[in-house]
Amino acid sequence: MSSTVTPERLTGRAWAVLFVLCGAIFLEGIDVSMMGVALPSIRAELGLTTGELQWIVSAYALSYGGFVLLGGRAADLLGRRRMFVGWLVVFLLFSGLGGFATEGWVLILARFVTGIAAAFMTPAGLSIITTTYPEGPQRNKALLVYAGTAAGGFSLGMVTGGLLTAIDWRWVFFAPVIVSAVILAGAVALIPRDTIRAKQEAGFDLAGAFTLTGSMLLLVATVVRAPDVPAAQTVATAAAGLMLLGAFVTIERRVTTPLIRLGLLRNPALIRANLGAILLVGSFVGFQFIAVLYLQELLAWSELETGLALMVIGIDAVLAPTLTPWLVTRFGNGRVVLGGFVLAAFAYTAFLPLGTKFAAMLPAFLLLGLAFALAYGPLTIAATERVAEDEQGLASGVLTTSFQFGSALGLAAVAAVLAAGDELTAGEFRTGLAVPLAAAVLGVVVACIPVRERTGANS
Q1: Nearest-angstrom CA–CA distance, 41 and 54
Q2: What angle do CA 84, 88, 92 make, to 5 degrees?
Q3: DSSP readout, 272-303?
Q4: Helix segments in 133-205, DSSP class H
Q5: Closest CA to 241 of 275, 260, 214
Q6: How close are the terminal C-alpha atoms of the chain, in Å?
Q7: Closest CA to 65 of 392, 403, 415, 411
């Protein structure tokens, strides 16, 4: 899609298209956060263990992360609008299926397919933005608004999830169906039709997609099942996951149309941005899992009380499009990301005492919201700028893979720690908090690594 925006200002139609695309990422944010608040109620009705419970989130994250590179390539080759609209329909249908589930495996299957739909829909939407707005202040602003909208969906989803779960947890699946239908109508009316045609010689690296997804599934399953299976089995599944990852790299080197051009990953700055994405989201999602279970199952807070408490983290929805652009202009991406990770480490440390009053938890929630506002948007910018237009979908897909794999891995590590105990006690929750804290500290280390910028490289 060619640029339709002048360097000086955004037209009214350009804003309308941005709102539709932001609606899709808002849908993703609200869908994930509503699910997190509803987990204890789902566990109670379907009789799931802590390990099984995390798969409701991980199934979505892993299928999303495993197929998003294929989704990015499909957007580049088959048309971004076509992929966005088509897979939004799939997202709508399987969200509805989840609401009718009466057994855990049906729910997990619905989440897995919904994740695949998001894997094709999201990079298409993000690459529409990065090919519509010129690189520089306008694209940065659009991306930060996009990131802020995702954050807004996440924070609003916590409250909405609490309200809907208080009625029936199935409404956390039915509500996205309604939102999807509204976004679908806007997309059909506003997003211009694709002007590109699929190249006849182009193909799709299905082997690469399946080996990458299989590798991530095995690695996450290794972490989740480690407390319950013999050490030999843990080693075996880990080795199998690494072997599939090696097979993925080999496939990418040999196929004529790879899922990812490995040369794109030779830039240290791009690698640093994606490592930061894994650590940021992994720590954040792991913390949310701990906080929801702690508040509802140990303190006996209601779903609505939990959602309202966690909504404070949504301060990033206000700060991301306002404060963060100014900080990025003033100090640069690297320093702002570093500040975000430092604040995240302080936030998790502040939550460690596990107070029983909201006032005691408030500083941690506020710090975490500020941390996410500082790190998320700048990481998105760093991972997609100075990438050729015909590889924007690919770059977006690589970043989304990092976000989703980090989400699944962080959640799996926390679930494994909590499942290792006989029951969920304050001590177990404190031990679990070591996972997001360690990830945030590693994020500080990664952000401090100096990277020499190369001419024409991805920063």
Answers
A1: 13
A2: 180
A3: HHHHHHHHHHHHHHHHHHHHHHIIIIIS---H
A4: 137-167, 171-190
A5: 214
A6: 23
A7: 403
User: Using one digit for the tens of pLDDT, what is the confidence trace for 170-202?
Assistant: 999 998 999 899 999 988 888 878 765 545 445
For 143-152, give one letter per residue: b (16+ CB within 10 A) or e. Answer: bbbbbbbbbb
Distance CA 79, CA 286 (A): 35
Question: pTM of this prediction?
Answer: 0.78
Cα–Cα distance for residue pair 352/217, rounded to 1 Å: 30
Distance CA 117, CA 203 (A): 20
The dihedral formed by the CA atoms of 205, 208, 214 and 216, expressed in degrees to the nearest 10: -120
One-letter amino acid of 137: P
Q: Is 19 exposed, middle or buried (0-12, 13-18, 19+ CB in 10 A)?
A: middle
* Radius of gyration, CA atoms only, the chain: 21
Report yes or no: 336 and 328 within 8 Å, Cβ to Cβ: yes
Q: Which two tokens stand for residue 444?
A: 């500080």
Q: Count the residues in the chain.
A: 459
Tokens of residue 383, six digits:
């991972």
Distance in angstroms (rounded) separating the CA atoms of residues 321 and 305: 27
Taking alpha carbons only, the member of 16, 36, 6, 15 closest to residue 307 is 36
Q: Give the whole-angstrom CA distance, residue 283 versus residue 435.
A: 7
- Rounded (10°) CA dihedral 335, 338, 340, 342: -130
* Distance between CA atoms of residues 35 and 29, nearest Å: 10
HSE toward the beta carbon, residue 363, CA cutoff 13 A: 13
Cβ(162)–Cβ(41) below 8 Å: no
pLDDT in tens, 117-171: 988 898 888 888 877 777 766 677 777 778 777 766 766 777 788 888 888 999 9
How far is the C-alpha of 365 from the C-alpha of 193, rounded, in Å? 42
Give every CB contact of residue 318 below 8 A, 6+ residues apart in sequence.
148
Interatomic CA distance for residues 453 and 208, integer angstroms: 30
Q: What is the largest CA-CA distance in the chain?
A: 62
Q: What share of the chain is helix, strand, coil (3-state, %, to 5)?
A: 80, 0, 20
Tokens of 1: 């899609």
Contact 114, 98 (CB under 8 A): yes
Provide the residue type at 238 as one letter: A
Q: Are 409 and 62 in contact (CB under 8 A)?
A: no
